[in-house]
Design brief:
The complex is a heterodimer of chains A (111) and B (114). By secondary structure, chain A is mainly β. Chain A is built from no helices and 11 strands. In chain A, strands 2, 4, 5, 9, 10 and 11 form a 6-stranded mixed β-sheet that branches. Chain B is mainly β and 114 residues long. Chain B is built from no helices and 11 strands. In chain B, strands 2, 4, 5, 6, 9, 10 and 11 form a 7-stranded mixed β-sheet that branches. A 4-stranded antiparallel β-sheet of chain B has the order 1-3-8-7, with no helix packed on it. Classes of the chains: A mainly beta (111), B mainly beta (114). Chains A and B meet through strand 4, strand 5 and strand 9 of A and strand 10 of B.
């Protein structure tokens, strides 16, 4: 069946560098996407979302890019900080709140 | 957004027993969900908790094992019945607030079954 997946299971970056976390989806009917951050021992925390009628959305230090042509979603974190270390999940909501989560990418920020 | 609390935050249980997890939201929400997250894994939807009616279960999950209640728009419970070590996991409550579409998560309940 169609699913959401991630290209990289782990990502290690130097503090201050930019991070890019990628996600591929296969369901062209998906119209809403969310990125979550999950720190150790906590529940997933909403970071940013984007609708399918947009290709870019910016938040505080984060940017989500959506490329519907190749069904690709990415999360960019600017000036990565140690507090950004976590597992990041993408999720797609394509039909009446039927949300599917990717496998997750563990981001480690090295001081 | 919504502020979601879960009780207990963690528990260690003996096999064969049952545990009921509570989820309380600070505002009325249209939808409530229960997820399971096994160690190092992504989130798997167990069921959608429907107010005043039976929950809608995903494939692989059954009411006898995971009975769910939702008596009102701000509260739900998930029971993990007749537990085995394979039920050791994090159980997460999730909600969609009224007039919204974004799903928010509670802090989770960490369950260890011995």
């Amino acid at each position: 069946g169609e699913s959401v997946g991630l290209h990289l299971p782990t990502l290690s970056v130097q503090e201050g560098d930019n991070s890019i976390i990628n996600c591929a989806y296969s369901n062209s009917a998906s119209d809403y996407f969310i990125w979550y951050k999950q720190e150790s021992g906590k529940g997933p925390q909403f970071i940013i979302d984007i609708r399918s009628n947009m290709d870019k959305r910016q938040g505080q230090r984060v940017t989500v890019l959506l490329n519907k042509t190749v069904k690709h979603l990415s999360l960019q974190i600017a000036a990565t900080q140690p507090g950004d270390s976590a597992v990041y999940f993408c999720a797609e909501n394509y039909n009446n709140n039927d949300m599917r989560f990717g496998a997750g990418t563990r981001l480690t920020v090295k001081p | 957004s919504a502020v979601i609390s879960q009780k207990p935050s963690r528990d260690i249980c003996q096999r064969g027993t049952s545990l009921t997890i509570q989820c309380q939201v600070d505002s009325q929400v249209t939808m409530m969900f229960w997820y399971r997250q096994q160690p190092g894994q992504s989130l798997t939807l167990i069921a959608t908790a429907n107010q005043g009616s039976e929950a809608t279960y995903e494939s692989g999950f059954v009411i006898d094992k995971f009975p769910i209640s939702r008596p009102n728009l701000t509260f739900s419970t998930l029971t993990v019945s007749n537990m085995s070590p394979e039920d050791s996991s994090i159980y997460l409550c999730s909600v969609i607030p009224a007039r919204g579409e974004t799903q928010y998560f509670g802090p989770g309940t960490r369950l260890l079954v011995l």
